[in-house]
């Protein structure tokens, strides 16, 4: 009967069933699960995409269902339709975290489920080399999420409110029966390496590059231990933009690079990289005053916070007023001028330098500085007008013949 109705009618009925068994009466979910999943082989792309969405919602409602449904998602990820594959990647981005959560409880099916999830993760990372631009974009976002999940959240991690409950490496027990903490840690680092390698590909498309720029900014803010790699990648890209980009695309990429650099600069952990970031922003057309306004003030400018890989550090307390980003952390926050702080502990390095110099700028010292400057200017003019005696002597020696050099014992 289902084969006789149109795709639109089929989707209407399926959505009604989903609303009933997931939101209104979850006790019915197990009874109707197989009937819904049977539509994964439907001829309609939209119906198959619906099944993927249903798998995600069902597993979020009942994490244990992932043990039964992961194989179905794995099959749909190999669908002939690019749109179905993209939908499957988006769903795996969420269900990878669910799989880690499920691994905390004991079950005979869990280890095979985790093995399949791990293989699917590798399959998506391989799709960074896909021929399809859209698939690559979805693979970039998956890689971003994977790196965040497989690295520890630290006190200075800038975590969006909607992701505060997400699992991360610091929540994984180091004595887990089949999931090794060190292995996950290494997989996260390798994923970052793959993303950085993808970014410097000379034939990368504008849309993929723009997506990757945003992902790196998100990583720098949520996982400050990767700040060094992110800033270095931005420097490399700024100096070597892909030759395949059109003029308008170059302008767009530079604009996005500027916005993401500003969002990274605003993070307190950017203190070690403010010089590099400021140089890039100046090259991208931002004024020094704008850069200064976006630079977070620190209590002790000379003492900087260093992030050791995967080691939780103490967070520097910021006295200056900070602008909180909204839930959507993928887009950098607009440049907002921070309000001047009344606290004496938030003096900038410029203020401290001014306090040191002002008492020294008395009339006598200023007059002495003027005389020194005038003397140096006069000396420079004399050097430019005539060569020194040593230079004249050296010039004569260089022009002597070998016979003449013997006469002067050279």
Features:
mRNA processing, 0% strand, single chain, nucleus, Symplekin/Pta1, 410 residues, mainly alpha
Describe what this molecule looks like in 3D.
The chain is mainly α. It has a domain at 363-407. Helices cover 59% and strands 0% of the residues. Helix 1 (7-24) packs parallel to helix 3 (45-61) and helix 5 packs parallel to helix 7. The chain is elongated. The chain starts with 6 loop residues before the first helix and ends with a helix. The model is unreliable at 299-306, 311-346 and 387-391 (pLDDT under 50). Residues 82-295 form the Symplekin/Pta1 N-terminal domain. It comes from Sinocyclocheilus grahami (Dianchi golden-line fish). It is found in: Nucleus. Residues 323-347 are annotated as: Disordered. Its main location: nucleus.
How large is the count of helical segments? 17
The percentage of residues in β strands lies in under 5%
Radius of gyration, whole Å? 31 Å
How confident is the prediction overall: mean pLDDT?
82
As a percent range, the share of helical residues equals 55-70%
What series of H and E elements makes up the topology?
A: HHHHHHHHHHHHHHHHH
Q: What structural class should be given to the helix and strand makeup?
A: mainly alpha
Uncertain regions: pLDDT < 50 for 5+ in a row?
299-306, 311-346, 387-391
Give the N-to-C terminal Cα separation: 109 Å
According to DSSP, the number of beta strands is: 0
The dominant shape is: elongated
The largest sheet is: none
**Oligomeric status:** single chain
Keywords: mRNA processing, Nucleus
Region (Disordered): 323-347
Protein name: Symplekin-like
Main location: nucleus
């Amino acid at each position: 009967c289902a084969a006789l109705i149109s795709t639109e009618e089929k989707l209407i009925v399926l959505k009604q069933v989903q609303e009933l068994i997931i939101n209104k009466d979850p006790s019915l979910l197990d009874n109707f699960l197989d009937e819904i999943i049977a539509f994964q082989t439907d001829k309609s792309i939209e119906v198959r995409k619906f099944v993927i969405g249903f798998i995600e919602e069902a597993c979020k409602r009942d994490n244990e269902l992932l043990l039964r449904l992961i194989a179905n998602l794995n099959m749909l990820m190999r669908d002939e339709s690019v749109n179905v594959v993209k939908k499957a990647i988006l769903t795996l981005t969420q269900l990878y975290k669910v799989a880690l959560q499920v691994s905390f409880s004991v079950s005979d099916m869990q280890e095979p489920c985790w093995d399949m999830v791990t293989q699917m993760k590798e399959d998506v990372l391989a799709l960074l080399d896909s021929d399809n631009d859209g698939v690559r974009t979805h693979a970039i976002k998956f890689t971003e999420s994977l790196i965040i999940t497989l690295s520890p959240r630290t006190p200075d991690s800038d975590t969006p409110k909607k992701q505060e409950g997400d699992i991360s490496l610091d929540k994984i027990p180091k004595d887990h029966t089949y999931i090794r903490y060190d292995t996950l840690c290494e997989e996260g680092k390798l994923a970052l390496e793959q993303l950085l390698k993808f970014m410097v590909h000379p034939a990368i498309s504008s849309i993929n590059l723009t997506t990757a720029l945003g992902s790196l900014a998100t990583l720098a803010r949520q996982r400050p231990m990767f700040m060094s790699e992110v800033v270095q990648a931005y420097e490399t890209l700024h100096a070597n933009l892909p030759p395949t980009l059109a003029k308008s695309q170059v302008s767009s990429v530079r604009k996005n690079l500027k916005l993401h650099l500003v969002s990274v600069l605003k993070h307190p952990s950017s203190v070690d990289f403010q010089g590099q970031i400021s140089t890039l922003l100046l090259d991208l057309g931002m004024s020094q005053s704008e850069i200064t306004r976006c630079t977070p003030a620190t209590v002790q400018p000379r003492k900087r916070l260093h992030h050791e890989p995967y080691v939780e550090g103490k967070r520097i307390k910021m006295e200056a007023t900070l602008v909180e980003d909204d839930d959507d952390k993928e887009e950098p926050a607009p440049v907002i001028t921070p309000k001047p702080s009344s606290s004496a502990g938030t003096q900038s390095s410029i203020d401290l330098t001014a306090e040191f110099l002002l008492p020294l700028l008395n009339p006598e010292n200023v007059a002495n500085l003027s005389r020194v400057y005038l003397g140096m200017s006069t000396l420079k003019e004399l050097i430019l007008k005539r060569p020194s005696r040593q230079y004249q002597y050296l010039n004569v020696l260089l022009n002597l013949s070998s016979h003449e050099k013997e006469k002067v014992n050279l």
